[in-house]
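Moderator note: this is an archived Q&A kept for reference. The question asked for a predicted structure of one protein chain; the sequence and the answer are reproduced below.
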Amino acid sequence: MFEKLFMLVKNNAGTAVIDNPAIPVKYHEAVINEASSSIIEVLKNQLETGKIKDLIKFFQFSGIYNNTLVSSIINRFANKLNNFYGIEPDSAMQTANSLITPVMAELVKESKDSKNMDFGLGHFLSKLNGNQADMSHLVNQMMVA
């Protein structure tokens, strides 16, 4: 499932990463990994801090609810670009915003596609929590509530 997230990020990385002169070619793959891990880290943190209801609402009502989640991912990724790759803060923020925003929109879209089990919200959240619990039942209950 995480490799599919990586591919989702990679497929959206054209302008933000691949065509970005601020990111040397030798770092493209690593930067795409950093974007993927930033998404996973922030979403996982939501679970670990008991904000599962907010996380589910984000996937249900994206665009209307909880843009702070996307902002957190953008900030985390921009910090990594700045700290690990020496990209200037403004450029790092612009790069992060132009990659993370469409990736999260597509992730939400994929999570709503009943044919795509890998990104189904219950399955996705179960993977984020390390398969410690099947989150599908909880997700279904909370989406109805």
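Archived answer notes: Residues 89-111 form the longest helix (23 residues).
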